[in-house]
From TrEMBL:
<dbReference type="GO" id="GO:0005886">
    <property type="term" value="C:plasma membrane"/>
</dbReference>
<dbReference type="Pfam" id="PF01809">
    <property type="entry name" value="YidD"/>
</dbReference>
<comment type="function">
    <text>Could be involved in insertion of integral membrane proteins into the membrane.</text>
</comment>
<comment type="similarity">
    <text>Belongs to the UPF0161 family.</text>
</comment>
<keyword id="KW-0472">Membrane</keyword>
<dbReference type="InterPro" id="IPR002696">
    <property type="entry name" value="Membr_insert_effic_factor_YidD"/>
</dbReference>
<protein>
    <recommendedName>
        <fullName>Putative membrane protein insertion efficiency factor</fullName>
    </recommendedName>
</protein>
<keyword id="KW-1003">Cell membrane</keyword>
Amino acid sequence: MRIVRITLQAPIRFYRKVISPLTPPSCRFLPTCSEYALEAIEVHGALKGSYLAVRRISKCHPFHRGGYDPVPLPKSPN
């Protein structure tokens, strides 16, 4: 499944290396949405990580305060 993670992370890495430096910083969250997406996919896998990333990006609008919003820790299997 690592190939799926790499495939999902590739466009995010491209955005961070090529597109993001051309625009002024505007993310209202810490970590940034792209950092969050990369970490979410790495920590939670392709499906849940993508869901978390989309949910986070959906909060990116002027009516949300933003602030510190880390990737949730994975639930330990009990």
